[in-house]
Predict the structure.
Amino acid sequence: MSRISVVINTFNAASILEQCIKSVLNFDEIVICDMYSDDNTLEIAQRYGCKIVMHERTGYVEPARNFAIAAASNPWVLVLDADELVTDNLRNYLYNIITKKDCPTGLLVSRANFFMGKFMRASYPDYQLRFFEKSKADWPSHIHSRPKIDGQVSQIPSKRKDLSLIHLQDSSITSILEKTNIYSDKEIQKSIEKGKNYSILSCLFHCFHRFFKVYFIKGGFLDGRAGFVNAALIAHYKFASISKIWEYKMQGQNDCEKFLSQK
């Protein structure tokens, strides 16, 4: 029978890690890839007998994905973040599918996102490519990337909500804003590499489009205040990213000195 390793990337995840680990105790192996946490993340991982590997801090998780996956001992890998939980139904489904002759090389798993205590209708099914054959996957290091799979990729039907990853998302709006500040810095280089330019009108369009899509088209308004806040924060991420791109490109300009030099 094929075996599955669960790989969890962590950094200062003590407040949520135990709940995550408890949801995957019945898998064959749990690998914790930690970026030198300052809290008791590693103590929790050791308590549950997890295999622990360390990776330098990079500010975001993608540069550590391949390193973490390589540390897994088994041919199949389920990659998680510390704020994600696996249901018994999903675990049983994964072990069953890898016994089939037509088993895909990679599997898109739906994710049920919870924010401010509410299930976010607007973000479901939020498919994530997190389950795959270890030897057939390569994860790009740029932010918000997905693994590249050498083989067939299928997805779990969205109507099977019982087979979704449970994503607790961020524990507070404060932590979301902190991550926005970190991640939007990383968007600068990605934008430069792709040669993207934004006008004021395009900035307004992108931000409004994100809010409108999440809140109205995808039904965020049905989630009450939490849905409104979620849509606004998604739009804010785009605004922060574009603003930092503008700031980067405007470096070296100093209208203050020009103003002061006027007679």
